[in-house]
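Need residues for this backbone.
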């Protein structure tokens, strides 16, 4: 068994969470204790949030087993520069699939949210995935990031606590709306996870992946929720690059799946995601799931030394999606 199996993603992530709780002004967040005793951290609903907490949330979602930094990137071969986030981890299976993946749909009464982060490894959401990566956390405190614009009711907090096997006063919920700057930052910070999940779906055993890195532009803000969601997807589908170092005996298999693991392999490729979404009557199930992949994916086989690359950054679609107007003097 790998030594990383003994790591607790909740314990590691809590080191970052406690830093945020101790310095809410620095991170532009609002921290409070719910009547249930749970910690509620608002990172963009009534709080300003920002890049700083968006970076921290990215690292929290990685279970404290990866790092992120904010910089900039050229859009394709253009002279246009956008803010970007770069992430990397030496524990790809656990950090991305076992923690960061948005794999927990929270629903109670009229409340819905998408849950991601370390608490999933306590609740085993979804159980089949944790069995595949052979990981389960046993920590007595839980951290869950909720992509939402509303504070959860006590019913949700109780459900999360029971699913994780911890008391409500040991629950930390971080609330981050998709359209907030923190939300957009942490969504682009899922670039390495997006590629990992796609490779997993295509049949690659996650244990073969030893190192992961990714970079994606941070979307420009938009007041319309559909446009904002579209830009968040386009940052990865048309602007994201993911790299993996794997130890595999079959180069032909790796070459085959790399070609399928990029967004350009989808029949829906070539238009901004908001446009694709509207054409599908705003029904995600009508959209080709192949589109949810990095723009470019690179795999190096540590065993053979060969590297396989597929896809490219699509500057035209990305610039259209971001609504950039290039002013010339």
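Answer:
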């Amino acid at each position: 068994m790998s030594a990383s199996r003994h790591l607790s993603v909740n314990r590691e992530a809590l080191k970052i969470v406690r830093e945020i709780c101790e310095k809410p002004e620095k991170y532009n967040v609002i921290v409070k204790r719910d009547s249930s005793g749970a910690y509620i951290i608002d990172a963009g609903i009534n709080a300003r949030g920002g890049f700083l907490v968006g970076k921290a949330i990215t690292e929290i979602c990685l279970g404290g087993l990866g790092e992120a930094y904010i910089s900039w990137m050229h859009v394709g071969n253009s002279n246009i520069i956008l803010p970007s986030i770069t992430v990397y981890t030496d524990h790809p299976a656990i950090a991305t699939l076992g923690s960061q993946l948005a794999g927990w749909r929270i629903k109670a009464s009229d409340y819905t949210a998408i849950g991601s982060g370390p608490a999933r490894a306590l609740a085993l959401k979804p159980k089949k995935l944790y069995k595949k990566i052979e990981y389960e956390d046993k920590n007595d405190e839980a951290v869950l990031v909720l992509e939402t614009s509303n504070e959860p009711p006590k019913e949700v907090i109780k459900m999360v606590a029971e699913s994780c096997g911890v008391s409500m006063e040991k629950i930390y919920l971080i609330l981050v709306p998709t359209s907030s700057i923190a939300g957009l930052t942490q969504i682009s910070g899922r670039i390495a996870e997006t590629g990992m999940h796609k490779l997993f779906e295509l049949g690659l055993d996650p244990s073969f992946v030893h190192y992961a890195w990714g970079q994606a532009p941070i979307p420009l803000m938009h007041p319309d929720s559909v446009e904002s969601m579209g830009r968040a997807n386009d940052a990865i589908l048309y602007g994201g690059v993911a790299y993996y170092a794997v130890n595999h005996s079959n180069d032909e298999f790796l070459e085959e799946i790399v070609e399928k693991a990029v967004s350009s392999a989808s029949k829906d490729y070539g238009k901004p995601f908001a446009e694709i979404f509207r054409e599908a009557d705003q029904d995600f199930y009508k959209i080709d799931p192949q589109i949810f992949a990095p723009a470019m994916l690179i795999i190096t086989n540590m065993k053979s030394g060969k590297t396989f690359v597929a896809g490219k950054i699509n500057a035209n679609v990305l610039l259209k999606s971001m609504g950039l107007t290039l002013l010339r003097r």
